[in-house]
């Protein structure tokens, strides 16, 4: 047990029965899992006049990034932000990789925003489409082969130093937010036609990334000539449509309840369309909170059915640790009855840094825009 201290006007139940004329702020550690206090302010802490310095929230439309691999088949995804643990990049590849790629610096997570194609690996071939995750273990040989007739290709690529794992679900059991039976692995008998990676010189190349440097291994045969495999390590696909999100009639579920993957202390959260809380005494908007342990990348993904509800797909915000974050008075006054779109959230325990490619298309003065504050 721990001592819970009380001063002034409060609610005995967090995120509900907020005292009239006050605005609740969540001050916690380890996201929403550690020690916490609720502060009841006379004004929303998100109603700032301006933010100066590197703590300012930053915004970008990921689909506006001129990715190098859109016009150069040999190019790799374009990095936008990074730290010692992860790198976040954008790929708009339209032509098949002319090589197999092997990342020996860590695992790779692909989130397909738009477009379709095939992931060709030494474990077999796996089709992919919009709003699907592909997880590729460290050291896997793979090629991305986009469908030539598909819509614009846009994929968010995260490279992680630590292995990508599924979070422990504890009392939730085995079937929320998804049954592991919905995960698909590549098949050797997939019968998906893909062009060969053989070069005009009759060689097959494996491009290897090690310690950030690239090397090439060349073969006189296709290195993905596997005739069988067995084990617990393999690439896999998770469709966002297979997520069954948690919801609560009387209280907002904390973001970590929607965690899909983790890599060490870094979290990948998928918020799927779902009803919001409906109880009369429940706070209808997510509580404002102070990011003190994580930088937060927050990306709108769209509805998944081609409809346009809410912010445009690919709009992303980055809120550095230490910055106030959450709804403003407009959102409090106009609560949703349903989250109508998918949202992707990446929480990193180390500060994110930005590349020139990010800064070239960054949205000016993003922290004051309604798309961030409301």
TrEMBL record:
Transmembrane segments: none
Entry keyword annotation includes Nuclease: no
The protein, known as: Homogentisate 1,2-dioxygenase
Keywords: Dioxygenase, Iron, Metal-binding, Oxidoreductase
GO terms of molecular function: homogentisate 1,2-dioxygenase activity
Provenance organism: Streptomyces niphimycinicus
Stored Pfam families: HgmA_N
UniProt xrefs under InterPro entries: HgmA_N, Homogentis_dOase
Keyword Oxidoreductase listed: yes
Domain Homogentisate 1,2-dioxygenase N-terminal residue range list: 95-238
Region of interest (Disordered), ranges: 1-28
E.C. number(s) listed in UniProt: 1.13.11.5
């Amino acid at each position: 047990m721990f001592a819970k201290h009380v001063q002034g006007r409060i609610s005995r139940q967090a995120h509900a029965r907020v005292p009239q004329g006050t605005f609740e702020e969540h001050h916690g550690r380890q996201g929403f899992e550690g020690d916490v206090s609720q502060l009841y302010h006379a004004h929303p802490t998100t109603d700032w006049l301006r933010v100066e310095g590197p703590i300012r929230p930053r915004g970008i439309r990921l689909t506006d990034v001129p990715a190098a691999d859109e016009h150069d088949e040999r190019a790799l995804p374009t990095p936008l932000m990074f730290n010692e643990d992860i790198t976040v990049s954008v790929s708009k590849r339209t032509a098949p990789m002319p090589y197999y790629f092997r990342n020996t610096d860590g695992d790779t997570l692909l989130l397909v925003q738009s477009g379709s194609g095939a992931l060709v690996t030494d474990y077999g071939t796996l089709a992919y489409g919009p709003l699907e995750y592909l997880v590729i273990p460290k050291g896997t040989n793979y090629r991305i082969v986009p469908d030539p007739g598909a819509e614009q290709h846009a994929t968010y690529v995260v490279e992680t130093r630590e292995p990508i794992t599924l979070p422990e679900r504890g009392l939730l059991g085995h079937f929320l937010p998804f049954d592991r039976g919905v995960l698909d692995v590549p098949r050797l008998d997939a019968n998906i036609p893909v062009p060969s990676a053989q070069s005009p010189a009759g060689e097959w190349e494996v491009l290897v990334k090690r310690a950030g440097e690239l090397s090439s291994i060349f073969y006189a045969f296709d290195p993905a000539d596997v005739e069988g495999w067995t084990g617990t390590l393999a690439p896999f696909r998770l469709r966002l449509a297979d997520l069954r999100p948690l919801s609560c009639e009387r209280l907002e579920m904390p973001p970590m309840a929607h965690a899909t993957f983790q890599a060490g202390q870094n979290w990948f959260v998928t918020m799927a369309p779902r009803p919001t809380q409906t109880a009369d005494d429940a706070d209808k908007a997510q509580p404002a909170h102070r990011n003190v342990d994580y930088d937060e990348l927050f990306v709108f993904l769209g509805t998944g059915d081609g409809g346009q509800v809410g912010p445009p797909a690919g709009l992303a915000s980055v809120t550095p640790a230490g910055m106030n974050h959450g709804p403003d008075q407009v959102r409090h006054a106009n609560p949703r009855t349903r989250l109508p779109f998918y949202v992707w959230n990446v929480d990193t325990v180390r500060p994110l840094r930005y590349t020139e490619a990010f800064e070239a298309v960054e949205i000016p003065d993003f922290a004051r825009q309604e798309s961030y504050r409301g």
